[in-house]
Amino acid sequence: MILAIGLLPVLVFLAALIYLDSYKLVRPKWVGVAIVLGCMLAVICWIVNVRLKQALSIDLTVYSRYVAPVIEETAKGLAIVAFVRSNRIGFLVDAAIYGFAIGAGFALVETVAYWNVLSTHTWSLWVVRGFGTAVMHGGATAICAIVGKALEERGGGAAVYGWPFAFLVAAIIHSFFNHFFVSPVLSTALILLLLPPMAFWIFQRSERALETWLNVGFDADTEVLEVILNGKVSESPVGTYLRSLREHFSGEVVVDMLNYLRLHLELSLRAKGLLMMREAGFAATLAAADRAKLDELDFLEKSIGATGKLAMAPFLRKSKRDLWQIYMMRGEAAK
């Protein structure tokens, strides 16, 4: 029962974040993957911390305040970067969920490890670990994911220094908690008072950004798709551009490029439609025709090659969010 106090709060908070996600951006399977990854990182960091502390020969208190937070938050942060680079994170809300899930997995292993190491198990100790330290791990990684993702979306210099800055923010939060400037119980209370309102604000901001992206993207995709489907390509900027490509590509490849653009737009609109349906409370799943389009898109992608995709870049919006929506469709098709 006492151990459950150390394990359950972070999982309950994670479940609340998933519940708040009205667009259901993160599949339960990948939440599980993130938790398992966090568990693995905890084991790796435990080994690194033990050996590095011995090598540095410094006091445990100093190490836990200044060295361990940097190592642990960098490890968890790199996992977030991997999710972003693989287009599994498109918005701040799913960044927060993935970040908290990785932190939760990390906290679960750490809690069990401390349970086995410590000789005494008092209620107050495990309340602090469960509601304080464990939630801090999840919250620090979630904040790292949010800050890094937000700065990356700004582009320019912010995208360059964004992730190192996000790692630093998470490490400072972790270090501040480990300093215990106030009593452990008060530190735990502060975490519980600050994290829920911050998470609610982030979810509101992210959902507004998602709604804006859906509306703007939907209109832009529909406009180009209508030109293609109405047979007016030759009169459009797309047609003019495709004619210029005939000097560099065969007629068959140019036709494949046009079909690739058409399918990409259709799947993009379908992905946005699925998100809108989910937000409205409907169960949205892919039809057989959608899966067929994904297969055809893969075929055409190989047919036109990397050079063809690069040539189509002016008409294919390739932001992180646009790439994410195709990933989301592939994930739905794999169910």
Quick tags:
single chain, mainly alpha, 2 domains
Task: Describe, in plain words, how this protein is organized in 3D.
- The longest helix has 46 residues.
- Helix 6 packs parallel to helix 8.
- The protein is built from twelve helices and no strands.
- It folds into two domains: 205 residues, no CATH class; 103 residues, no CATH class.
- The chain is elongated and about 75 Å long.
- It is 83% helix and 0% strand.
- It has 335 residues and is mainly alpha-helical.
Please outline what is shown here.
This protein has 335 residues and is mainly alpha-helical. Helices cover 83% and strands 0% of the residues.
Q: What portion of the residues fall into strands of 2 or more residues?
A: under 5%
Please, what is the average pLDDT? 79
> What order do the SSEs take from the amino end to the carboxyl end, as H and E?
HHHHHHHHHHHH
- Major beta-sheet overview: none
Structural class by helix and strand composition: mainly alpha
Query: What is the total tally of β strands?
Result: 0
Tell the overall outline. elongated
Number of domains: 2
User: Uncertain regions: pLDDT < 50 for 5+ in a row?
Assistant: none
Rg from Cα: 24 Å
Distance between the termini: 36 Å
Task: State the share of residues found in helices, binned by percent.
Answer: over 70%
Total helices: the number is: 12
